[in-house]
Amino acid sequence: MATVLGVGGVFFKSGNPTALGQWYRDHLGMAVGEYGADFVPTTMPDKGMTVWCPFAEDTQYFSPSEKGFMFNLVVDDLAEALKQVVAGGGQQVGEIVKESYGHFGWFLDPEGNKVELWQPM
Q1: Which helix or strand (DSSP H or E) is residue 51 part of?
Q2: DSSP designation for 10
Q3: In what order do the strands lie in the sheet with 102-108?
């Protein structure tokens, strides 16, 4: 059985990503850069990380969900995890994408939230 190993990212829409990132940097000390803030906890798999990044308000990356956010969960077996969520009533969105830093797959949960699964290399 595939197991979630941690939170791979928190992605959400923002009316002004630059200003919001600046606010978090100024008021909470987050090291926010051009691509958000990276957090690398020791419990993550090798090369795993948690990414925090505001997206432009008009992004289509969360589609087909109508929600203003998307979860990213780190898994140890992406293909198996997608099979499990589909068997549990989730709807797979698109095909697995292979990048140099890992493989990605997406699904809609029973409430219509888009979830991105990431299996790091």
Answers
A1: strand 50-56
A2: E
A3: 37-39, 50-56, 4-14, 69-75, 114-120, 102-108, 91-99
Distance CA 70, CA 113 (A): 7
Per the document, the length of the chain is 121
Tokens coding 18: 């630059």
At 40-51, the pLDDT tens digits run 777 678 877 788
- Tell me the one-letter amino acid at 110: P
> Helix, strand, coil % (nearest 5) of the chain?
20, 45, 40
pLDDT in the model for residue 28:
66
Give the type of residue at 68: G
Task: Supply the pTM of this predicted model.
Answer: 0.75
**Of the candidates 9, 102, 105, which has an alpha carbon nearest to the alpha carbon of residue 49?**
9
Q: Could you tell me the fold of the domain covering 4-120?
A: 2,3-Dihydroxybiphenyl 1,2-Dioxygenase; domain 1 (3.10.180)
